[in-house]
Protein backbone atom coordinates (compact mmCIF):
# COMPACT_ATOMS: atom_id res chain seq x y z
CA UNK A 1 0.00 0.00 0.00
CA UNK A 2 1.48 3.34 -1.00
CA UNK A 3 2.16 5.96 1.63
CA UNK A 4 2.26 9.69 0.88
CA UNK A 5 5.54 10.95 2.27
CA UNK A 6 8.55 13.22 1.68
CA UNK A 7 11.13 12.64 -1.04
CA UNK A 8 14.01 12.27 1.44
CA UNK A 9 12.02 9.73 3.46
CA UNK A 10 10.85 7.73 0.42
CA UNK A 11 14.32 7.43 -1.11
CA UNK A 12 16.01 6.64 2.23
CA UNK A 13 13.44 3.92 2.90
CA UNK A 14 13.37 2.28 -0.52
CA UNK A 15 16.79 2.75 -2.18
CA UNK A 16 19.92 1.23 -0.67
CA UNK A 17 23.53 1.17 -1.83
CA UNK A 18 24.09 -1.87 -4.04
CA UNK A 19 20.47 -2.03 -5.27
CA UNK A 20 19.35 -2.51 -8.85
CA UNK A 21 17.30 0.57 -9.61
CA UNK A 22 15.21 1.64 -12.60
CA UNK A 23 14.20 5.29 -12.99
CA UNK A 24 11.98 5.16 -16.06
CA UNK A 25 10.12 7.59 -18.30
CA UNK A 26 10.66 7.54 -22.08
CA UNK A 27 11.77 11.15 -22.72
CA UNK A 28 8.56 12.18 -20.91
CA UNK A 29 8.10 12.15 -17.09
CA UNK A 30 11.74 11.39 -16.22
CA UNK A 31 12.03 11.38 -12.41
CA UNK A 32 14.82 13.97 -12.07
CA UNK A 33 13.90 15.17 -8.58
CA UNK A 34 14.05 11.60 -7.23
CA UNK A 35 17.37 10.91 -8.98
CA UNK A 36 18.81 14.06 -7.44
CA UNK A 37 17.72 12.83 -4.00
CA UNK A 38 19.70 9.61 -4.61
CA UNK A 39 22.76 11.75 -5.43
CA UNK A 40 22.21 13.90 -2.30
CA UNK A 41 21.91 10.84 -0.07
CA UNK A 42 25.22 9.55 -1.51
CA UNK A 43 23.76 6.15 -2.34
CA UNK A 44 26.45 4.10 -4.09
CA UNK A 45 27.20 0.97 -6.15
CA UNK A 46 23.84 1.00 -7.87
CA UNK A 47 23.04 -1.04 -10.95
CA UNK A 48 21.08 1.53 -12.92
CA UNK A 49 18.55 0.34 -15.52
CA UNK A 50 17.05 2.68 -18.09
CA UNK A 51 16.31 2.35 -21.81
CA UNK A 52 17.60 5.88 -22.48
CA UNK A 53 19.97 6.99 -19.68
CA UNK A 54 19.29 10.65 -20.63
CA UNK A 55 20.71 13.57 -18.60
CA UNK A 56 19.50 12.03 -15.34
CA UNK A 57 21.84 9.04 -15.49
CA UNK A 58 24.61 11.27 -16.85
CA UNK A 59 24.25 13.20 -13.58
CA UNK A 60 24.03 10.08 -11.39
CA UNK A 61 26.96 8.35 -13.11
CA UNK A 62 29.10 11.50 -12.95
CA UNK A 63 28.24 11.80 -9.25
CA UNK A 64 29.54 8.30 -8.55
CA UNK A 65 26.22 6.55 -7.78
CA UNK A 66 26.57 3.74 -10.31
CA UNK A 67 28.60 0.54 -10.58
CA UNK A 68 26.77 -0.84 -13.60
CA UNK A 69 24.44 0.43 -16.31
CA UNK A 70 21.85 -1.62 -18.23
CA UNK A 71 20.65 0.44 -21.21
CA UNK A 72 19.79 0.54 -24.89
CA UNK A 73 20.46 4.12 -26.10
CA UNK A 74 22.88 6.40 -24.26
CA UNK A 75 22.79 9.84 -25.86
CA UNK A 76 21.51 13.36 -25.23
CA UNK A 77 18.43 13.21 -27.48
CA UNK A 78 18.78 15.50 -30.49
CA UNK A 79 21.96 17.04 -29.07
CA UNK A 80 24.75 14.44 -29.01
CA UNK A 81 26.74 12.55 -26.39
CA UNK A 82 26.24 12.00 -22.69
CA UNK A 83 29.71 13.19 -21.68
CA UNK A 84 29.64 11.84 -18.11
CA UNK A 85 28.56 8.41 -19.35
CA UNK A 86 31.32 8.51 -21.97
CA UNK A 87 33.93 9.63 -19.45
CA UNK A 88 33.00 6.71 -17.20
CA UNK A 89 33.11 4.15 -20.04
CA UNK A 90 36.14 5.56 -21.89
CA UNK A 91 38.27 6.72 -18.93
CA UNK A 92 36.76 5.24 -15.76
CA UNK A 93 35.85 8.61 -14.19
CA UNK A 94 34.77 9.02 -11.44
CA UNK A 95 34.87 5.22 -11.30
CA UNK A 96 34.73 2.39 -13.85
CA UNK A 97 31.25 1.59 -15.12
CA UNK A 98 30.27 -1.90 -16.17
CA UNK A 99 27.78 -1.85 -19.02
CA UNK A 100 25.16 -4.34 -20.14
CA UNK A 101 23.96 -3.12 -23.49
CA UNK A 102 20.75 -4.02 -25.31
CA UNK A 103 18.42 -2.76 -28.01
CA UNK A 104 15.19 -0.93 -27.22
CA UNK A 105 13.10 -3.92 -28.28
CA UNK A 106 15.02 -6.16 -25.88
CA UNK A 107 14.64 -3.80 -22.92
CA UNK A 108 10.92 -3.29 -23.59
CA UNK A 109 10.34 -7.04 -23.80
CA UNK A 110 12.50 -7.62 -20.71
CA UNK A 111 10.44 -5.20 -18.59
CA UNK A 112 7.22 -6.81 -19.82
CA UNK A 113 8.65 -10.23 -18.91
CA UNK A 114 9.57 -8.90 -15.45
CA UNK A 115 6.04 -7.59 -14.92
CA UNK A 116 4.67 -11.01 -15.93
CA UNK A 117 7.08 -12.86 -13.59
CA UNK A 118 8.68 -14.64 -16.53
CA UNK A 119 12.37 -15.57 -16.16
CA UNK A 120 13.15 -14.24 -19.62
CA UNK A 121 11.70 -12.62 -22.70
CA UNK A 122 11.50 -14.02 -26.24
CA UNK A 123 11.30 -11.85 -29.33
CA UNK A 124 12.34 -11.49 -32.95
CA UNK A 125 15.52 -9.52 -32.53
CA UNK A 126 19.29 -9.12 -32.54
CA UNK A 127 19.59 -10.89 -35.91
CA UNK A 128 23.04 -10.21 -37.32
CA UNK A 129 23.98 -7.69 -34.60
CA UNK A 130 27.35 -7.71 -32.84
CA UNK A 131 25.49 -6.90 -29.60
CA UNK A 132 24.82 -10.61 -29.20
CA UNK A 133 28.60 -11.17 -29.45
CA UNK A 134 29.55 -8.73 -26.66
CA UNK A 135 26.64 -9.29 -24.28
CA UNK A 136 26.55 -12.82 -22.82
CA UNK A 137 22.99 -12.22 -21.61
CA UNK A 138 21.69 -12.19 -25.17
CA UNK A 139 20.93 -15.72 -26.35
CA UNK A 140 19.07 -17.39 -29.17
CA UNK A 141 16.61 -20.21 -28.71
CA UNK A 142 14.43 -22.18 -31.09
CA UNK A 143 10.68 -21.83 -31.03
CA UNK A 144 9.54 -25.26 -29.74
CA UNK A 145 6.71 -25.31 -32.28
CA UNK A 146 8.13 -23.85 -35.48
CA UNK A 147 11.90 -24.02 -34.98
CA UNK A 148 12.20 -20.32 -35.72
CA UNK A 149 15.24 -18.73 -34.03
CA UNK A 150 14.21 -16.22 -31.36
CA UNK A 151 16.30 -13.85 -29.28
CA UNK A 152 16.05 -14.18 -25.52
CA UNK A 153 17.17 -11.88 -22.70
CA UNK A 154 16.66 -12.20 -18.95
CA UNK A 155 13.62 -10.45 -17.49
CA UNK A 156 14.32 -7.12 -15.79
CA UNK A 157 13.41 -7.35 -12.09
CA UNK A 158 14.62 -4.15 -10.37
CA UNK A 159 14.85 -3.96 -6.59
CA UNK A 160 13.27 -0.54 -6.94
CA UNK A 161 11.51 1.30 -9.74
CA UNK A 162 11.01 5.06 -9.54
CA UNK A 163 8.66 6.98 -11.84
CA UNK A 164 7.25 10.48 -12.11
CA UNK A 165 3.53 10.79 -12.89
CA UNK A 166 0.90 13.46 -13.37
CA UNK A 167 -1.36 12.67 -10.44
CA UNK A 168 -2.00 10.61 -7.38
CA UNK A 169 -5.25 10.56 -5.44
CA UNK A 170 -5.40 10.62 -1.61
CA UNK A 171 -5.81 6.84 -1.66
CA UNK A 172 -2.38 6.58 -3.29
CA UNK A 173 -3.41 5.49 -6.80
CA UNK A 174 -1.24 6.91 -9.58
CA UNK A 175 -2.24 8.24 -13.02
CA UNK A 176 0.16 8.37 -15.99
CA UNK A 177 -0.91 9.93 -19.31
CA UNK A 178 0.65 10.90 -22.64
CA UNK A 179 3.77 9.05 -23.74
CA UNK A 180 3.49 6.29 -21.13
CA UNK A 181 6.75 4.55 -22.04
CA UNK A 182 7.61 1.48 -19.97
CA UNK A 183 6.57 2.85 -16.59
CA UNK A 184 3.71 0.42 -15.92
CA UNK A 185 5.91 -2.57 -16.78
CA UNK A 186 8.86 -1.20 -14.79
CA UNK A 187 6.72 -0.67 -11.69
CA UNK A 188 5.08 -4.10 -11.90
CA UNK A 189 8.47 -5.77 -12.53
CA UNK A 190 10.04 -4.29 -9.38
CA UNK A 191 10.14 -5.55 -5.80
CA UNK A 192 9.49 -1.99 -4.57
CA UNK A 193 8.27 1.12 -6.35
CA UNK A 194 7.68 4.80 -5.75
CA UNK A 195 6.25 7.71 -7.71
CA UNK A 196 6.76 11.43 -7.56
CA UNK A 197 3.71 13.30 -8.87
CA UNK A 198 2.75 16.75 -10.14
CA UNK A 199 -0.32 16.93 -7.90
CA UNK A 200 -2.29 14.96 -5.35
CA UNK A 201 -6.06 15.19 -5.75
CA UNK A 202 -8.51 14.63 -2.90
CA UNK A 203 -11.13 12.49 -4.62
CA UNK A 204 -10.35 8.97 -5.78
CA UNK A 205 -9.89 8.60 -9.52
CA UNK A 206 -12.87 6.28 -9.75
CA UNK A 207 -15.16 8.83 -8.06
CA UNK A 208 -14.60 11.69 -10.50
CA UNK A 209 -14.95 12.27 -14.23
CA UNK A 210 -11.20 12.73 -14.44
CA UNK A 211 -8.96 10.33 -16.26
CA UNK A 212 -10.18 8.40 -19.25
CA UNK A 213 -11.11 4.84 -18.43
CA UNK A 214 -7.98 3.52 -20.15
CA UNK A 215 -5.45 5.99 -18.79
CA UNK A 216 -2.67 4.16 -16.96
CA UNK A 217 -3.66 3.97 -13.32
CA UNK A 218 -1.31 2.11 -11.03
CA UNK A 219 -3.32 0.94 -8.01
CA UNK A 220 -1.99 2.06 -4.64
CA UNK A 221 -1.01 -1.52 -3.79
CA UNK A 222 1.56 -1.62 -6.62
CA UNK A 223 3.74 1.08 -5.01
CA UNK A 224 5.23 1.78 -1.58
CA UNK A 225 5.55 5.57 -1.65
CA UNK A 226 4.06 8.64 -3.31
CA UNK A 227 5.72 12.05 -3.10
CA UNK A 228 4.27 15.38 -4.21
CA UNK A 229 7.03 17.06 -6.28
CA UNK A 230 5.61 19.64 -8.72
CA UNK A 231 8.02 20.08 -11.63
CA UNK A 232 9.85 16.90 -10.59
CA UNK A 233 10.42 15.79 -14.19
CA UNK A 234 12.23 18.97 -15.27
CA UNK A 235 14.08 19.32 -17.70
CA UNK A 236 11.98 16.54 -19.25
CA UNK A 237 8.27 17.30 -19.25
CA UNK A 238 4.87 16.44 -17.81
CA UNK A 239 2.11 16.28 -20.40
CA UNK A 240 -0.63 18.69 -19.34
CA UNK A 241 1.68 20.60 -16.99
CA UNK A 242 4.87 21.88 -18.64
CA UNK A 243 6.86 21.42 -21.83
CA UNK A 244 10.23 19.76 -22.32
CA UNK A 245 13.00 22.27 -21.63
CA UNK A 246 14.83 21.63 -24.88
CA UNK A 247 17.14 24.60 -24.25
CA UNK A 248 18.39 22.92 -21.08
CA UNK A 249 19.15 19.70 -22.97
CA UNK A 250 21.23 21.79 -25.39
CA UNK A 251 22.93 23.69 -22.55
CA UNK A 252 23.77 20.44 -20.73
CA UNK A 253 26.27 19.51 -23.44
CA UNK A 254 28.74 22.22 -22.36
CA UNK A 255 28.13 21.66 -18.63
CA UNK A 256 28.76 17.91 -18.84
CA UNK A 257 31.75 18.14 -21.18
CA UNK A 258 34.02 19.42 -18.42
CA UNK A 259 34.53 17.53 -15.11
CA UNK A 260 34.97 20.67 -13.00
CA UNK A 261 32.04 22.47 -14.51
CA UNK A 262 29.89 19.37 -14.04
CA UNK A 263 30.94 18.98 -10.40
CA UNK A 264 30.18 22.63 -9.71
CA UNK A 265 26.75 22.27 -11.32
CA UNK A 266 25.92 19.21 -9.18
CA UNK A 267 27.13 21.00 -6.05
CA UNK A 268 25.03 24.10 -6.77
CA UNK A 269 21.85 22.52 -8.11
CA UNK A 270 21.71 19.06 -6.52
CA UNK A 271 23.78 18.88 -3.32
CA UNK A 272 22.66 22.35 -2.25
CA UNK A 273 19.29 22.03 -3.96
CA UNK A 274 16.12 20.16 -3.18
CA UNK A 275 12.75 19.06 -4.53
CA UNK A 276 11.17 22.45 -3.78
CA UNK A 277 13.16 24.09 -6.56
CA UNK A 278 11.73 21.98 -9.35
CA UNK A 279 8.40 23.81 -9.64
CA UNK A 280 10.06 27.12 -10.54
CA UNK A 281 12.53 25.51 -12.94
CA UNK A 282 9.84 23.55 -14.77
CA UNK A 283 7.36 26.36 -15.14
CA UNK A 284 9.97 29.02 -15.91
CA UNK A 285 11.24 26.93 -18.82
CA UNK A 286 10.60 28.26 -22.28
CA UNK A 287 7.72 26.87 -24.23
CA UNK A 288 4.01 26.70 -23.64
CA UNK A 289 2.50 24.51 -20.95
CA UNK A 290 1.28 21.23 -22.34
CA UNK B 1 26.20 26.23 -51.77
CA UNK B 2 25.27 25.85 -55.42
CA UNK B 3 22.17 27.06 -57.19
CA UNK B 4 20.59 28.47 -54.07
CA UNK B 5 20.37 25.36 -51.89
CA UNK B 6 22.79 23.51 -49.64
CA UNK B 7 24.03 19.93 -49.89
CA UNK B 8 22.20 19.17 -46.65
CA UNK B 9 18.94 20.46 -48.12
CA UNK B 10 19.47 18.34 -51.23
CA UNK B 11 19.99 15.28 -49.01
CA UNK B 12 16.82 15.85 -46.99
CA UNK B 13 14.75 16.50 -50.11
CA UNK B 14 16.10 13.40 -51.88
CA UNK B 15 15.31 11.26 -48.83
CA UNK B 16 11.80 12.72 -48.53
CA UNK B 17 11.03 11.81 -52.15
CA UNK B 18 11.51 8.11 -51.40
CA UNK B 19 8.42 8.09 -49.16
CA UNK B 20 4.92 7.65 -50.52
CA UNK B 21 1.32 8.07 -49.41
CA UNK B 22 0.93 4.36 -48.67
CA UNK B 23 3.91 4.16 -46.36
CA UNK B 24 3.83 3.65 -42.63
CA UNK B 25 7.20 4.93 -41.53
CA UNK B 26 9.19 4.34 -38.34
CA UNK B 27 11.03 7.62 -37.87
CA UNK B 28 14.39 8.27 -36.22
CA UNK B 29 15.43 11.64 -34.82
CA UNK B 30 17.51 14.11 -36.83
CA UNK B 31 17.85 13.78 -40.62
CA UNK B 32 15.17 11.04 -40.93
CA UNK B 33 12.65 13.12 -38.98
CA UNK B 34 13.20 16.14 -41.22
CA UNK B 35 12.87 14.03 -44.38
CA UNK B 36 9.72 12.24 -43.20
CA UNK B 37 7.95 15.41 -42.19
CA UNK B 38 8.98 17.15 -45.41
CA UNK B 39 7.42 14.27 -47.37
CA UNK B 40 4.21 14.54 -45.32
CA UNK B 41 4.05 18.31 -45.93
CA UNK B 42 4.68 18.03 -49.68
CA UNK B 43 3.95 15.06 -51.95
CA UNK B 44 2.79 12.47 -49.40
CA UNK B 45 0.13 14.01 -47.13
CA UNK B 46 -1.27 10.58 -46.18
CA UNK B 47 2.14 9.21 -45.09
CA UNK B 48 1.78 7.76 -41.60
CA UNK B 49 4.60 8.52 -39.19
CA UNK B 50 5.34 6.36 -36.17
CA UNK B 51 7.95 7.24 -33.52
CA UNK B 52 9.35 4.67 -31.11
CA UNK B 53 8.02 6.61 -28.12
CA UNK B 54 4.65 5.11 -29.06
CA UNK B 55 3.08 7.91 -31.10
CA UNK B 56 1.16 6.65 -34.15
CA UNK B 57 0.10 8.85 -37.07
CA UNK B 58 1.71 11.89 -35.54
CA UNK B 59 1.68 15.20 -37.42
CA UNK B 60 4.13 17.52 -35.66
CA UNK B 61 4.15 21.15 -36.77
CA UNK B 62 7.78 21.49 -35.65
CA UNK B 63 10.50 18.85 -35.70
CA UNK B 64 10.92 17.19 -32.31
CA UNK B 65 14.32 17.50 -30.63
CA UNK B 66 13.85 14.12 -28.97
CA UNK B 67 12.01 10.97 -29.95
CA UNK B 68 9.38 11.70 -27.31
CA UNK B 69 8.68 15.44 -27.40
CA UNK B 70 5.17 16.40 -26.27
CA UNK B 71 4.46 17.70 -29.78
CA UNK B 72 4.49 14.11 -31.06
CA UNK B 73 1.89 12.86 -28.58
CA UNK B 74 -0.36 15.91 -28.89
CA UNK B 75 -0.59 15.60 -32.66
CA UNK B 76 -0.82 11.78 -32.80
CA UNK B 77 -3.89 9.72 -33.64
CA UNK B 78 -3.05 7.46 -30.69
CA UNK B 79 -0.16 6.85 -28.33
CA UNK B 80 0.73 3.34 -27.15
CA UNK B 81 3.24 2.09 -24.58
CA UNK B 82 6.81 1.39 -25.63
CA UNK B 83 6.50 -2.42 -25.16
CA UNK B 84 3.36 -2.36 -27.30
CA UNK B 85 5.14 -0.28 -29.96
CA UNK B 86 7.96 -2.79 -30.26
CA UNK B 87 5.78 -5.91 -29.90
CA UNK B 88 2.58 -5.33 -31.84
CA UNK B 89 3.52 -2.57 -34.26
CA UNK B 90 7.19 -3.08 -35.17
CA UNK B 91 7.64 -6.82 -34.58
CA UNK B 92 4.06 -7.32 -35.76
CA UNK B 93 5.23 -6.36 -39.25
CA UNK B 94 2.95 -3.33 -39.58
CA UNK B 95 5.66 -0.80 -40.52
CA UNK B 96 6.59 -0.52 -44.19
CA UNK B 97 9.67 1.74 -43.99
CA UNK B 98 12.31 2.24 -41.33
CA UNK B 99 14.55 5.27 -41.66
CA UNK B 100 18.00 4.85 -40.15
CA UNK B 101 21.37 6.59 -39.85
CA UNK B 102 24.57 5.81 -38.00
CA UNK B 103 28.18 6.80 -37.38
CA UNK B 104 29.53 4.22 -39.85
CA UNK B 105 28.18 2.33 -42.86
CA UNK B 106 29.92 -0.30 -44.99
CA UNK B 107 29.46 -1.41 -48.61
CA UNK B 108 26.65 -3.78 -47.64
CA UNK B 109 24.79 -1.06 -45.73
CA UNK B 110 25.50 -2.53 -42.32
CA UNK B 111 25.51 0.20 -39.65
CA UNK B 112 27.52 1.05 -36.55
CA UNK B 113 26.06 3.34 -33.88
CA UNK B 114 27.81 1.70 -30.89
CA UNK B 115 31.58 2.36 -30.64
CA UNK B 116 34.60 3.64 -32.53
CA UNK B 117 37.53 1.42 -31.55
CA UNK B 118 37.32 -1.86 -29.65
CA UNK B 119 34.07 -2.51 -27.74
CA UNK B 120 35.80 -3.22 -24.43
CA UNK B 121 37.98 -0.11 -24.64
CA UNK B 122 36.29 2.29 -27.03
CA UNK B 123 37.93 5.38 -28.42
CA UNK B 124 34.49 6.91 -28.78
CA UNK B 125 31.44 5.55 -27.02
CA UNK B 126 28.42 6.24 -29.28
CA UNK B 127 24.77 6.10 -28.09
CA UNK B 128 24.11 2.50 -29.16
CA UNK B 129 21.29 0.68 -30.88
CA UNK B 130 18.15 2.28 -29.57
CA UNK B 131 15.47 0.86 -31.83
CA UNK B 132 17.74 0.34 -34.86
CA UNK B 133 18.64 -3.35 -34.48
CA UNK B 134 15.04 -4.55 -34.69
CA UNK B 135 13.84 -1.76 -37.00
CA UNK B 136 16.36 -3.12 -39.53
CA UNK B 137 14.91 -6.63 -39.55
CA UNK B 138 11.21 -6.02 -38.82
CA UNK B 139 10.31 -3.13 -41.17
CA UNK B 140 9.49 -4.21 -44.73
CA UNK B 141 12.37 -2.12 -46.06
CA UNK B 142 14.99 0.35 -44.86
CA UNK B 143 16.12 3.75 -46.08
CA UNK B 144 19.38 5.18 -44.75
CA UNK B 145 20.30 8.85 -44.70
CA UNK B 146 23.87 9.88 -43.76
CA UNK B 147 26.40 12.60 -44.55
CA UNK B 148 29.01 11.31 -47.00
CA UNK B 149 32.41 11.31 -45.34
CA UNK B 150 35.32 8.81 -45.48
CA UNK B 151 35.13 8.38 -41.69
CA UNK B 152 31.49 7.35 -42.03
CA UNK B 153 31.59 5.32 -45.28
CA UNK B 154 34.19 2.77 -44.20
CA UNK B 155 35.69 -0.43 -45.56
CA UNK B 156 35.15 -2.22 -42.25
CA UNK B 157 32.82 -1.29 -39.39
CA UNK B 158 34.26 -1.11 -35.88
CA UNK B 159 31.03 -2.76 -34.66
CA UNK B 160 27.96 -4.04 -36.46
CA UNK B 161 25.08 -2.66 -34.44
CA UNK B 162 22.53 -3.10 -37.17
CA UNK B 163 22.32 -5.65 -39.96
CA UNK B 164 22.14 -4.32 -43.49
CA UNK B 165 22.86 -7.06 -46.01
CA UNK B 166 25.51 -8.68 -43.79
CA UNK B 167 29.27 -9.19 -44.03
CA UNK B 168 29.09 -10.72 -47.53
CA UNK B 169 25.73 -9.41 -48.74
CA UNK B 170 24.14 -12.86 -48.42
CA UNK B 171 23.38 -13.00 -44.70
CA UNK B 172 19.75 -11.91 -44.74
CA UNK B 173 18.74 -14.77 -46.99
CA UNK B 174 20.86 -17.23 -45.03
CA UNK B 175 19.10 -16.18 -41.82
CA UNK B 176 15.69 -16.64 -43.38
CA UNK B 177 14.77 -12.99 -43.00
CA UNK B 178 11.88 -12.08 -45.25
CA UNK B 179 12.15 -8.30 -44.98
CA UNK B 180 14.14 -6.50 -47.67
CA UNK B 181 16.65 -4.56 -45.56
CA UNK B 182 18.33 -1.42 -46.91
CA UNK B 183 17.06 -0.52 -50.39
CA UNK B 184 18.26 3.09 -50.55
CA UNK B 185 21.06 5.22 -49.10
CA UNK B 186 20.79 9.00 -49.48
CA UNK B 187 23.81 11.20 -48.76
CA UNK B 188 24.67 14.84 -49.33
CA UNK B 189 26.50 13.79 -52.52
CA UNK B 190 24.46 11.01 -54.11
CA UNK B 191 21.91 8.24 -53.82
CA UNK B 192 22.98 4.59 -53.64
CA UNK B 193 21.04 1.37 -54.06
CA UNK B 194 22.16 -2.23 -53.45
CA UNK B 195 23.11 -4.23 -56.53
CA UNK B 196 20.24 -6.68 -57.13
CA UNK B 197 22.63 -9.68 -57.17
CA UNK B 198 25.53 -8.85 -54.83
CA UNK B 199 23.72 -6.33 -52.58
CA UNK B 200 26.79 -4.08 -52.70
CA UNK B 201 25.88 -0.39 -52.57
CA UNK B 202 26.08 1.21 -56.00
CA UNK B 203 25.86 4.90 -56.83
CA UNK B 204 22.52 5.39 -58.61
CA UNK B 205 22.44 9.17 -58.98
CA UNK B 206 24.74 12.09 -58.28
CA UNK B 207 23.29 15.29 -56.87
CA UNK B 208 23.61 18.25 -59.28
CA UNK B 209 27.18 19.54 -59.49
CA UNK B 210 28.72 16.51 -57.70
CA UNK B 211 31.50 14.58 -59.53
CA UNK B 212 32.33 10.86 -59.47
CA UNK B 213 35.61 11.85 -57.92
CA UNK B 214 33.98 13.58 -54.95
CA UNK B 215 32.01 10.44 -54.15
CA UNK B 216 35.12 8.23 -54.51
CA UNK B 217 37.10 10.53 -52.20
CA UNK B 218 34.36 10.48 -49.58
CA UNK B 219 33.96 6.68 -49.59
CA UNK B 220 36.35 4.40 -47.71
CA UNK B 221 36.02 1.49 -50.16
CA UNK B 222 36.35 1.49 -53.94
CA UNK B 223 32.78 2.41 -54.62
CA UNK B 224 30.88 1.05 -57.62
CA UNK B 225 28.74 3.15 -59.92
CA UNK B 226 25.64 1.99 -61.79
CA UNK B 227 25.99 1.50 -65.56
CA UNK B 228 23.92 4.61 -66.05
CA UNK B 229 24.34 7.08 -63.21
CA UNK B 230 21.55 9.64 -63.20
CA UNK B 231 21.48 13.16 -61.83
CA UNK B 232 19.22 13.74 -58.84
CA UNK B 233 16.57 16.33 -59.64
CA UNK B 234 17.41 19.52 -57.72
CA UNK B 235 15.02 20.63 -54.95
CA UNK B 236 11.90 22.33 -56.31
CA UNK B 237 10.80 25.71 -55.05
CA UNK B 238 8.02 24.11 -53.01
CA UNK B 239 10.33 21.50 -51.47
CA UNK B 240 12.88 24.12 -50.44
CA UNK B 241 10.33 26.56 -49.11
CA UNK B 242 8.54 23.87 -47.09
CA UNK B 243 11.80 22.54 -45.63
CA UNK B 244 13.04 26.00 -44.68
CA UNK B 245 9.72 26.92 -43.08
CA UNK B 246 9.82 23.69 -41.09
CA UNK B 247 13.38 24.33 -39.91
CA UNK B 248 12.58 27.93 -39.01
CA UNK B 249 9.49 26.96 -36.99
CA UNK B 250 11.57 24.31 -35.26
CA UNK B 251 14.40 26.69 -34.32
CA UNK B 252 11.89 29.19 -32.94
CA UNK B 253 10.05 26.54 -30.92
CA UNK B 254 13.14 25.02 -29.33
CA UNK B 255 14.73 28.30 -28.34
CA UNK B 256 18.41 28.82 -27.80
CA UNK B 257 18.74 30.31 -24.31
CA UNK B 258 20.92 28.43 -21.87
CA UNK B 259 19.04 27.24 -18.82
CA UNK B 260 21.81 26.99 -16.28
Task: Describe the overall structure.
The complex is a heterodimer of chains A (290) and B (260). Chain A is of the alpha/beta class and 290 residues long. Chain A folds into two domains: 220 residues, Glutaconate Coenzyme A-transferase, CATH 3.40.1080.10; 51 residues, no CATH class. Helix content of chain A is 31%, strand content 24%. In chain A, strands 1, 2, 3, 4, 7, 11, 12, 13, 14 and 15 form a ten-stranded mixed sheet that branches. A three-stranded antiparallel sheet of chain A has the order 8-10-9, covered by helices on one side. A two-stranded antiparallel sheet of chain A has the order 5-6. In chain A, strand 9 and strand 10 form a beta hairpin. The model of chain A has no long low-confidence stretch (mean pLDDT 95). Chain B is of the alpha/beta class and 260 residues long. Chain B has one domain: Glutaconate Coenzyme A-transferase (3-Layer(aba) Sandwich). Chain B contains eight helices and 14 strands. In chain B, helix 1 crosses helix 2. Classes of the chains: A alpha/beta (290), B alpha/beta (260).
